[in-house]
Amino acid sequence: MTSLKDVATIAGVSPSTVSRVINGTMYVTDETRRRVEEAIATVNYRPNLLAQSLRLKATRNIGLLVPEIAHPSFNLVIKYIEESAFKRGLNLLIFNTHNNHGREANAMDLLLRQRINGIIFSRISDENHVINMSRSSDIPMVVIDRSLHDEKIPNVILDNYLAGVMAAEHLLACGCKKMATITGSFKIGLARERFQGFRDTLEKHGLQLDRDLVYEGEFNFENGVAGVTHFLETGYSFDGLWGQNDMIAAGAIGTLVRHGIKVPEDVSVMGMDDVQFARMYCPSISTIAQPYKEMCEKAVECIDKLTKDEEVEQFQVLYPPKLVVRESTAEKS
Prior knowledge:
single chain, 2 domains, 12 helices, 43% helix, DNA-binding transcription factor activity
């Protein structure tokens, strides 16, 4: 049986340092943490938390990891997964990883070391520390929302390429001729897929997406503000803009209006996700909706089956997006 000393030898650190990484009791450098986590994944080491009286007593527990609990999209993920888990008699433990790779790895490790039945998670990015941990574990797992192309575990995701296609087609139908887009981080696969669908569709219709009108950042309001500010300061004109989520779109709309640019008369703006405030914003935001309820119910169904050693019919469940037209887009007069 693998011991803590074995992990320490592989990582080239002391056993006490391994303990610090596992328990988070003292600071260690990112490089040291990385070596220890890789060593843990290599030997599939699982400390005995029963001896520490930390093991959970219930037997129908599942964990949920989300990158940012305050984000409107993950609000919906938590809401619908909790509702579906409750109906199935599953207890839900929620971990907010704060878009931090170290916290994400710690949360995953904590769940793996406890008597957890299964884990549903949405990873921070493609470049994280939980990939080997998830692949080396015998605990059932399901990925929701952010999947890798070579995902080795069941995943429930949106057709993000199609979302980009639909956004471009709607702006084209509005008569937009010069497009801009503000994206999430390209370290996240879905951001790349959305961008690819958007760009390919414009090219299909004979329009080139100017690289100077592509602004990459985070999936937040501030990125919408920063993107539009950058476009305006550099003098790039556009009459159609797609923010890769509704928060980006809201930031973009507010910034355009503050600069005297009318939405949608001068610039049509689209969002993505269809979170609650998209219909409450002024102007209300045209968007590409995700079927969060259906996706979350499917993720819980999958993890429930896996915890019962039942087969999952589809390794990847791909959901189509839906266009929702509101006030922030309109046909050019």
